[in-house]
Amino acid sequence: MKTPGLIGSYVQLWKRYVDFGGVTGVADFWWAVLADFIIACVLGSLGQFVGFISYISYLYSLAVLIPSIAICIRRLRDAGYAWQNIFWIFLPIAGWIILVIKFCKPTGSQIQGND
To answer: If the chain, 115 residues long, is cut into consecutive pieces of 10 residues, what is the mean pLDDT of each piece?
Structure first.
């Protein structure tokens, strides 16, 4: 199966923005994260020079919140973890590290608990 790449993965992020039940592969997840990061950086940088663009940046961040949660849950499910692992995000610093490690795991077949 061919991976769609940066633009294709970003389009899939928006097409499946409320799909909390499927799975997302490693490459699709990281391409979508990269595309989102680039767009957020561009909007944030433009906001420094043009005042109203900063409002667009805030609106974009708000709009991408649910799709980001959905893709994270799909990625955890694809890696073989339960969706509840998303709550690691509330643990400062270490939680982010734990999630990144879980997001990098290859596709798994067995659902695990809150490891």
So the answer is: 79 92 92 95 84 82 95 95 95 95 84 52
Q: From residue 21, how far is each of 3, 32, 60, 76, 105 by CA, in Å?
A: 20, 18, 24, 11, 19
- The CA distance from 32 to 18, in Å, is 15
Q: Are 88 and 99 in contact (CB under 8 A)?
A: yes
Residue 108 near residue 80, CB atoms below 8 Å: yes
For 47, which DSSP code? H
Token pair, residue 92, equals 């400062």
Burial letters 63-78, b for 16+ CB under 10 A, else e: ebeebbbbbbbbbbbb
Helix axes 94-104, 65-78, angle to 10 degrees: 60
3-state secondary structure of 81: strand
**Cα separation of 51 and 89, whole Å?**
31
- CA distance linking residue 58 with residue 69, whole number of Å: 17
